[in-house]
Design a protein that fits this description.
- This protein folds into two domains: 98 residues, no CATH class; 169 residues, no CATH class.
- 39% of the residues lie in helices and 18% in strands.
- The protein contains eleven helices and eight strands.
- The longest helix is centred in the middle third of the chain and has 16 residues.
- This is DUF2877 domain-containing protein.
Length: 284
């Protein structure tokens, strides 16, 4: 048996003992599913980006396992370990260290918000919607103005969610990442739970978006986010130095192909469209 000590999301230690299955395999990650629940477990060797549901192996061990994972015979979780039997090896991935992906706070400091939006004006990136990120920084230039405004109203919020969820290309469609950003601000602003209910009703059904997109939205609805997004939260709360902002934004952007910039577009869009509810002066 090849035993590997791994870093894992703390909630993985609460899993019931059961069989798991390889869901999908990519260049730098692969996902496991128990075929009974929405959230996936993501395995990788890159500890610089901690994700909810993440399991992190030493890079060399991960490279070896990734090369074998398409030839898997059996996967199971027992106690504190994932056991993976391939045709080449029998692996035990034992969780010996954990991290938390939980959002444990609410509220936004208005001065920090102004700095955030101002620094975002320097980001020259194209989103997965094939629209410049800059356009999302003002309501008057924002793409999908009508559909985005639907997200702010309890009567129309389901229409807005239905427009964005599953929209776009990729492992996690751009619309899912955009909604993830909205959900984060929704939690921080402490209002509009109708948005979360509208998203929850759609991720129960596999027909609206990808399994990976459903998994990330599932975690977000339970206040669980990546380490990069939690870094931005700390900044907005005043718990990160001002000079760290550009690095925090860069870390948030560097997820997937356009997932990071699409999520950041959702964050700034939510801040702009919800400015009345937040009672903040967003002129900058």
């Amino acid at each position: 048996m090849r035993e590997v000590e791994v870093l894992g999301d703390h909630v993985l230690l609460t899993l019931e003992d059961r069989d798991w299955y390889v869901h999908s395999v990519f260049e730098h990650t692969f996902n496991l599913t128990d075929k009974q629940h929405t959230p996936l477990v993501i395995l990788t060797g890159d500890r610089s980006k901690l994700l909810p549901g993440g399991l992190y192996l030493p890079p060399r061990d991960f490279t070896d396992l990734l090369s074998q994972i398409r030839d898997t015979r059996k996967v199971a979780f027992r106690g504190d370990s994932f056991y993976i039997e391939t045709y080449q090896d029998f692996w035990r991935l034992r969780i010996v260290d954990t991290f938390r992906a939980d959002l444990l706070t609410e509220g936004i400091r208005s001065d920090r918000l102004g700095y955030l939006l101002n620094n975002c004006r320097n980001i020259d990136r194209q989103t997965g919607f094939d629209q410049p990120f800059q356009d999302f920084l003002r309501a008057e230039t924002s793409p999908y103005q009508k559909e985005t405004s639907w997200l702010t109203n309890a009567v129309t919020v389901q229409w807005g969610v239905d427009f964005f969820i599953g929209r776009g290309r990729g492992l996690t469609p751009s619309g899912d990442d955009f909604l993830l950003g909205w959900i984060l601000i929704d939690w921080l602003s402490g209002n509009h739970q109708e948005l979360r209910a509208a998203v929850a009703s759609r991720i129960e059904d596999a027909s609206y978006t990808t399994d990976v997109g459903r998994s990330y939205l599932y975690y977000a609805l339970r206040r669980r986010f990546s380490s990069a997004l939690l870094g931005i939260v700390r900044y907005l709360k005043g718990n990160e130095p001002l000079e760290n902002l550009d690095n925090l934004l860069a870390e948030a952007i560097e997820y997937g192909n356009t997932s990071g910039i699409d999520c950041l577009a959702g964050i700034v869009s939510a801040l702009v469209y919800k400015q009345v509810n937040l009672d903040l002066d967003l002129k900058y």
